[in-house]
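Blinded run. Sample ID left blank on purpose so nobody reads anything into the name before looking at the predicted structure. Input follows.
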Amino acid sequence: MTSESDNRGQWGSKTGFVMAAAGSAVGLANIWAFPYRTGQNGGAAFVIVYLVCIFLICLPFLLAEITLGRYSQKNVMGAIRAIRPKSTWLGLGVLSIVASIFILSFYSVVAGWSVGFIFKTLVHSETPFTAFAPKPQIVLPLSALFIVFTVLVVYGGVKTGIERWSKMLMPLLILLMVGLILRGLMLPNALNGLEFYLKPDFSKLDGKVIMAAIGQAFFSLSLGIGGILTYGSYLSKKENIIRSGFYIAWFDTLIALLAGLMIFPALFAFGLEPNEGPPLVFMVLPEVFKQLPAGNVIGAGFFLMLSIAALTSTISMLEISVAYFVDEKRWRRKHIVWVVGMLAFMLGLPSALSQGAIPSLSDLPLFGGLSYLELMIFLWFDIFPPLGAILFSIFIGWVWGIDNAIGELQKGSQLLQRNVLGFPVKIATIWGFFIRYLCPLAIALIWFNAIFA
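Blinded prediction complete.
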């Protein structure tokens, strides 16, 4: 099949790239996982370790992914082929594309729940989540609807689709979060939630908490599956990658921190435990909303915000595979988006039906009683993305070569040639050390912890 000359596209502005890349990172990991993991791991002390990990481990790797993408001006497979054609490293590209489709498949199921809860909350439905999730006549259309939303955005291309919608969705997301935060802070006993969230108790820090913070920092930026690399491939050679990378990390972290400010004051106001775990969003918070004046409107606003955050992530998941077919196979974007979207929906059916609709999918004896959805989350969040990140670190730092990576990263910025705090050591040297040694080691610790914990 043939492709139009402008099929690949390029960002129209630096702001558009930052918004899109931050949107790729911002998602359920920030608004769903960050608050409950903070609650399970002692509050403010966990948050401080998380922030350190974001800027010491995740940011250097984020810059590396963007750099490889911009250097190649290709999708994840094309980027590897540009450096090591016909090598086994192409398997890393295959892993990234497969991971993106599987993540899209089950992510759209959870995102569909969010869309459903917008209307469920508005009409004061008393149906609990445990009765809502097992109904295929509800969850399957919602999952399909969310994939259609995602397809329609990516269908429009890089500039008129992804960039334009990211510029609208991300400010709307923050506006909704700020509104919910202000309402929560007006509740009685809300200050107790702020104290738990903002006043660190370092006696609660142990190896488990530190590993959880590293893992959350890594997953919150959606690293290791090629989404940031793909977005970086649409960057102009004139753009300052370092500045854009800082903005992306800052934006993503801001959303996570706002999520905590939104949730913990409300939990403590109603005497609920902060360590409720994964059911927090769909089982605990709806009960909080019921007790608030105009709680149905506030609750609907929350789930609208959650849906927007999920959409900005599913857009990047779809774009990873679409970019591959556009670049490598010369398929037209407007065709392949529907093909991949349909494939993701079909792959997501077992996840959607594993919450009680089909008992054999709801309890998998071979995997310790996990549901199929929980198994997918474990495989495609906890196992394969960290493995991909380890391999990308090795590929960028050792196969492509750290000098080549530094050369590309310096285009648009001379920051790497400055000394570190007056010492005769270049920032470039420190960044190279992080990519070649520290990042792979830290990510490997996350990986082994996920497997053997």
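Unblinding after everyone has recorded impressions. The first helix runs from residue 14 to 25.
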